[in-house]
Amino acid sequence: KRTPHPKERFRIDTVGIAYLQSIGFTYRQAEGLIEYRDSGAEGIRNMAELSDCWAVSVEMADSLARYIIFPEPKPHNGKIEINSADSATLVTIRGIGPTTAGAIVRYRDLLGGYVSIDQLSELKCVTNENFALFSKQICCDSCVFSKIDINFAPAQELEVHPYMTRKAINKIIQLRKSKGGWKSIEEIVNDDIFTEEQVIALAPYLHFGTIPLDFLQENN
Q1: What is the pLDDT of residues 105-150, one digit of tens each?
Q2: Could you write out the three-class secondary structure of the chain?
Q3: pTM recorded for the entire structure
Q4: pLDDT digits (tens, 9 = 90+) for 69-113
């Protein structure tokens, strides 16, 4: 096993195989990293994505962390896209400081991504004045977020989401045992699991995995 030893910082979006070999990668590792990088539309954007590459071990990622320069998120019509921007990019937005940037990223992780910039106003550290100021400088790619499989997600996963309540989670777990799950948001509304406001907020984040046929047959 080799651990890379760069002497200076380098851009992961432009580096080539020869350079990677010069800092300690084998040819196969360097080739694998480049192929992995070029297979994505936006390359490798952060340490998490770098660590997902088969050619980079945990030890290698730790060794490289302070040397890699990642590409900045691409602006959308001059605006910063909040589902891909990191804290360093968010603080470049007028009206967003380090505390707010950190809160935006943490809340994004809990939600699974933002579906609207209006969700930033749900943060306690965001005032109406600040939101009015920075909302004109940001945008939201509503295709970049993860969903919860309401029919199969364990209670621990449900508990993490900010829009879930303990009462709703208990009812979900209980009803899943008796009916197997749901096929649509309308069925959840009919079962009175969430309030109307909660349903509107949660709907984009819910996925309805297929209920096993044998379960349906047993309960019909």
Answers
A1: 999 999 999 999 999 999 999 999 999 999 999 999 877 678 899 9
A2: CCCCCCCCCEECCCCCHHHHHHCCCCHHHHHHHHHHHHHCCCCCCCHHHHHCCCCCCHHHHHHHCCCEECCCCCCECCEEECCCCCHHHHCCCCCCCHHHHHHHHHHHHHHCCCCCHHHHHHCCCCCHHHHHHHHHHEECCCCCCCCEECCCCCHHHHHHCCCCCHHHHHHHHHHHHHHCCCCCHHHHHHCCCCCHHHHHHHHHHEECCCCCHHHHHHCC
A3: 0.63
A4: 988 766 667 899 999 888 888 988 988 999 999 999 999 999 999
